[in-house]
């Protein structure tokens, strides 16, 4: 059969009609002109037989594929047929292999991609803040160093480079925390097939930030008196002062204070219900309110602007110009205290440095919780009652057989502690 019957001029002269047109070039190469209703596209295909079946192999579209190129594609396919190979099947397999390779390439996540997968699958579901704390640590301390690397390529020296950056800044405790986050993230990657090894296995906290000792800072009676006076002269907003004194009176965590709603407080019954979703251990808690604690709540009520005890102030208004019902960030309280303890002010922050430094050294809002527990013990409150006042969960065999709530004893403990605070804070200021 004659070949190469057509010319480029002939192809340019083809016009689509209302029906499909077929024109042969010879040697099994055909030109197919689709109807106008289907776009009038001009396609080349090679028609052949293999294993007793007629097949068609796509040789390209005109004018993207020239007539000469279409003939070369036909010749290549014809050679395969001569060897007993179906070029259509081969093209299908090659396309599938290419798509699989591209899919695999897309799965080759960077460390940034690994973090986002970890945040989406685990952090958002299992961390109360949705992973905000972990993300902040990652962005500040990890991203710039290894974020753009392929996660599979990360090795121990890369992890050490991240840790060394923290050690150079003198934040050893943060180095241990970041190492822990990296270890969790790469183990997530192992379980998801994103990485093949955990590059953090070769380094321990001892080789990072060093062994950590439990913080045991608690204020004695004299320091409580000192703190009360310094709070009054600190320049802090009255609702911040009330919040800190409420922590001292109830032993509540900062996060429990900032997440508390007025609906959780029953001033008639003198109780504060902390729902399970707001407590650190996921267990609902009841705090009996002393007169001292109620005094702080009364002070907070003067600044009530939404459903939360401590309402957020710097929030973006809704399109309707309304302020969202949002709580103050727990970090706001800690930053306010630390800014007034540090020696040198940070840019854009308060200049009232040192005004909350105590004679016994630095302190944090969480130390007030520990202070309550320690001073309750001084007042003769039994350890197991103090533990329940703190909403601690008993461990081991005790947890199995002793499930008492000790509500009466807890109420007496909170009242006794409240009376002690009234005595201490009404003394001469220091």
Describe the structure in your own words.
It is a single chain. The strands form two sheets. The protein has a four-stranded antiparallel beta sheet with strand order 1-2-3-4. A three-stranded antiparallel beta sheet has the order 5-6-7. It has 17 helices and seven strands. Helices cover 48% and strands 9% of the residues. The protein has three domains: 8-106, Double Stranded RNA Binding Domain (2-Layer Sandwich), CATH 3.30.160.390; 111-207, DNA polymerase, domain 1; 221-425, hpI Integrase, Chain A, CATH 1.10.443. The N and C termini lie far apart (111 Å). The protein is an alpha+beta fold and 430 residues long. Residues 395-403 have low confidence and may be disordered. The protein has helices at residues 8-13, 67-82, 87-107, 111-126, 132-141, 143-146, 156-168, 172-192, 221-232, 238-250, 254-259, 291-301, 330-339, 365-378, 383-389, 396-401, 407-425, and strands at 21-26, 29-33, 42-50, 53-62, 265-266, 271-274, 285-288. Helix 7 (156-168) packs antiparallel against helix 8 (172-192).
In CATH, the architecture of the largest domain is Orthogonal Bundle
CATH homology-level superfamily of the largest domain: Intergrase catalytic core
Strand order of the largest sheet: 1-2-3-4
Mean pLDDT: 87
Helix-strand pattern: HEEEEHHHHHHHHHHEEEHHHHHH
Instruction: Please work out how many helical segments DSSP would assign.
Output: 17
The tally of strands reads 7
Summarize the model shown.
With 430 residues, the chain is α+β, with helices and mostly antiparallel strands.
Defining traits:
single chain; 430 residues; alpha+beta; Double Stranded RNA Binding Domain; hpI Integrase, Chain A; four-stranded antiparallel β-sheet; three-stranded antiparallel β-sheet; 7 strands; 9% strand
């Amino acid at each position: 059969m004659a070949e190469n019957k057509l010319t480029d001029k002939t192809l340019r002269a083809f016009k689509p009609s209302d029906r499909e047109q077929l024109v042969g070039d010879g040697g099994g190469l055909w030109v197919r002109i689709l109807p106008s209703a289907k776009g009038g596209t001009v396609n080349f295909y090679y028609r052949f037989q293999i294993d007793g079946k007629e097949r068609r192999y796509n040789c390209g579209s005109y004018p993207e594929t020239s007539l000469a190129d279409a003939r070369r594609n036909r010749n290549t396919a014809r050679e395969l047929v001569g060897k007993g190979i179906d070029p259509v099947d081969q093209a299908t397999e090659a396309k599938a292999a290419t798509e699989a390779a591209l899919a695999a390439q897309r799965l080759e996540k960077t460390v940034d991609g690994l973090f986002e997968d970890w945040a989406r699958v685990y952090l958002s579901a299992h961390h109360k803040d949705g992973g905000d704390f972990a993300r902040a640590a990652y962005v500040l301390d990890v991203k710039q160093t290894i974020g753009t690397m392929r996660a599979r390529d990360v090795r121990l020296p890369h992890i050490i480079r991240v840790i060394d950056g923290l050690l150079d800044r003198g934040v050893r405790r943060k180095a241990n925390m970041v190492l822990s986050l990296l270890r969790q993230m790469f183990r997530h990657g192992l379980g998801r097939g994103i990485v093949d090894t955990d590059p953090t296995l070769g380094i321990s906290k001892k080789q990072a930030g060093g062994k950590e000792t439990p913080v045991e800072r608690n204020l004695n009676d004299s320091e409580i008196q000192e703190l009360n006076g310094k709070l009054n002269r600190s320049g802090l907003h009255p609702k911040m002062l009330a919040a800190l004194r409420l922590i001292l009176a109830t032993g509540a965590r900062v996060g429990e204070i900032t997440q508390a709603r007025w609906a959780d407080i029953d001033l008639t019954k003198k109780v504060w219900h902390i729902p399970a979703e707001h407590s650190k251990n996921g267990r609902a808690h009841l705090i009996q309110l002393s007169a001292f604690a109620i005094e702080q709540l009364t002070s907070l009520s003067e600044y009530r602007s939404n459903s939360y005890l401590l309402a957020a102030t710097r929030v973006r208004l809704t399109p309707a110009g309304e302020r969202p019902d949002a709580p103050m960030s727990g970090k706001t309280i800690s930053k306010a205290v630390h800014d007034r303890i540090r020696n040198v002010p940070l840019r854009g922050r308060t200049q009232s440095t040192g005004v909350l430094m105590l004679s016994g050294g630095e302190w944090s809002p969480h130390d007030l919780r520990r202070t309550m527990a320690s001073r309750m013990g001084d007042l003769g409150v039994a350890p197991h009652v103090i533990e329940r006042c703190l909403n601690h969960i008993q461990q081991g065999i005790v947890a199995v057989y002793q499930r008492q709530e000790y509500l009466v004893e807890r109420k007496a403990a909170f009242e006794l502690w409240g009376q002690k605070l009234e005595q201490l804070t009404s003394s001469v200021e220091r």
